[in-house]
Amino acid sequence: MGLYIIQMHRRDMADPAPIFHTFVTMNERHNIVFLSLGSNRGDRMEALRTAEKLIAERIGAVTGRSPVVESGPWGFTDDTLFLNDVLEVRTSLSPHEILQVAGEIEEEMGRERKVPVYDEWGKRVYSARIMDIDILFYNDVILESKELTIPHPAISIRRFVLAPFSMFRPGFVHPVLKKTMREMLDECPDKSEVRVIEDLRKER
Predict the structure, then answer these.
(1) CA distances (Å), 202 to each of 65, 125, 169, in order?
(2) Superfamily of chain region 29-203
(3) pTM of the prediction?
(4) Exposed / middle / buried, residue 45 (Cβ in 10 Å: 0-12, 13-18, 19+)
């Protein structure tokens, strides 16, 4: 067992200071993390499979996976569409340890780490990448720190995440919004096309 300190914040407050701390006991075998994977450079399907293999080796056993979907770039324009999927992973690592390992996997696969760029309205500008790994959920933990926010703050507005997630875990409940993935997909303001390319679950 391990003890992990979580800083809790009110999301509607301008003051970023935590209002209290809580201690989350982590079971070394049974923490469940959901990861979103995406690629729009090179052999995109091979990139997803390579990333899954490295995640299984370094983060934990993959216990569930969504179908692979294809969609247009989100937050920028590019000629190549993205392939995305969602993995359910059983891990003994803490959220910040997962963040570090995920970043190492991205860089090992060829992603160049760049300083974030923002437009004139303060909105982050995204770019093409060989591999992008985002932490969506970690158990039912709610975490806000300088490096990491869980649940991922953009889940509710990203159809390329909600569509595959709802295909294999439609009843999973967002710990903050208290809505299922299926409900969030139905309410998602992003109406871009997302189509299934391959269901990797059928290969297992």
Answers:
(1) 10, 36, 16
(2) 7,8-Dihydro-6-hydroxymethylpterin-pyrophosphokinase HPPK (3.30.70.560)
(3) 0.80
(4) middle
